[in-house]
Amino acid sequence: MPETPAFVYDQTAIDRTLSTFEEAAAGSGPRLLYSVKSFPFLPLLRRIAPRVDGLSASSLFEARLCAEALAGRGGLHITTPGFRPGEIDEIGRLCDFVSFNSLEQFDRWSARMEGTASVGLRVNPQLSFAPDPRYDPCRPHSKLGVPLDRLVPAEVGRLERLEGIHFHTVFDCASFEPLAEILAKLENKLGERLKRLRWLNLGGGYRLEGDLGRLAGFSTRLQRDYGLEVYFEPGKAVIGSAGYLVASVIDVFNSGGKTVAVLDSSINHHPEVFEYQRSPRLAEVCEEGRETAILAGGTCLAGDLFGEYALPTRPRIGDRLVFEDVGAYTLVKANRFNGHNLPSIYRWDGEALHLEQSYGYEDYRRQWGGEPAAQ
Ligand SMILES: *Cc1c(COP(=O)(O)O)cnc(C)c1O
């Protein structure tokens, strides 16, 4: 049993996901990249590097970590609205594929990629599929990518260094229908000009439980019709359902007629609970649970609540609770609010748990100005 709070990732689940993808994409299916930002954990990156065609990053630090994990094997892709003057040359050296977010950035930096990285452009297909504008890259006045309207073939003709196009438009999407619509729009808009490109990056945001045959079919057709290398870069689909947050109950009491169980974790270990008003799924929850309890984080914020859950029995001090499907966008957004420690990270290999990372008071102290301990 892990010490809590703990973040556990199931290596066997990740391996299964990668195998399923490999089978579906065998032949001319898209090349698989893991988009690391949802869980950029170096031991995991090293483990999956041999099984993917590369990694995708969104910043210089992520790119450095990816380069370390890839150790010369596989391609490193990057796109971000935030390339800075002081880092652009290192970005070019580290990355194999650099997609600029605007025509302005393209004009400013693309020549600097000469001889080091293949130059692409992130486009905004201007088709919205996300229900919430906070995570819709195609929202009105979006900052993400060149609106396809601006990318008339004449404009593209001017971009002689352009070798690839990148788009990323959906979040946690179960169907590949948005992809079909985007590709139709892109082909309609750019037509034969696509033949002069080398690659197309379809982004991530899709779940992999859907019709992978359909995804592979898009890739096969794009290769056949335009000679494009096709990349697909999911993050959450690789790590989301493989990750668990394990917490212990440290207090239970009644408040205004409801049971409140205080945990040794908090929504600061899963900030999207608060950001997007989600309630993570709990393993113990039972359909006709006789007891309901509010599961509360242990910080001073009144709204630090995971939600109200139906449980088989009233929670007791010392009980372990396991939140499921929380592998993505949890620890990477976690903070030490109230001076609470971050969860330890464990890997499950199908037989045993392995502690791979833990944090302590020294890490906290260093974050808040403590000089390194004298040796
Ligand atoms: C976040 C992101 C991804 C991965 O998204 P998931 O929802 O985790 O699959 C892929 N590409 C780009 C450009 C991204 O910003």
SSE map:
Layout: E1 6-10, H1 11-25, E2 31-35, H2 42-48, E3 54-57, H3 60-70, E4 75-79, H4 88-94, E5 97-100, H5 103-109, E6 118-124, E7 146-147, H6 153-158, E8 164-166, H7 177-190, E9 199-201, H8 212-226, E10 229-232, H9 236-239, E11 243-255, E12 258-263, H10 272-275, E13 281-282, E14 291-296, E15 305-311, E16 320-324, E17 344-348, E18 353-357, H11 361-367
Parallel strand pairs: 1-17, 2-3, 2-10, 3-4, 4-5, 5-6, 6-7, 6-8, 8-9, 9-10, 12-14
Antiparallel strand pairs: 1-11, 11-12, 11-16, 13-16, 14-15, 17-18
Helix pairs in contact: 2-3
The structure holds pyridoxal-5'-phosphate.
Which tags fit this structure?
375 residues; alpha/beta; TIM Barrel; Lyase, Ornithine Decarboxylase, Chain A, domain 1; 2 domains; 9-stranded mixed beta sheet; 8-stranded parallel β-barrel; 18 strands; 24% strand; globular; binds pyridoxal-5'-phosphate
Q: In angstroms, what separates the terminal alpha carbons?
A: 33 Å
Overall mean pLDDT stands at 95
Largest sheet: 9 strands, mixed
Name of the CATH first level of the largest domain: Alpha Beta
Q: Low-confidence parts, pLDDT < 50 over ≥5 residues?
A: none
User: Which ligands appear in the coordinates?
Assistant: pyridoxal-5'-phosphate
Counted up, domains total 2
CATH topology of the largest domain: TIM Barrel
Number of strands: 18
Family: Belongs to the Orn/Lys/Arg decarboxylase class-II family. NspC subfamily.
Catalytic activity: carboxynorspermidine + H(+) = norspermidine + CO2; carboxyspermidine + H(+) = spermidine + CO2
EC number: 4.1.1.96
GO molecular function, one term: diaminopimelate decarboxylase activity
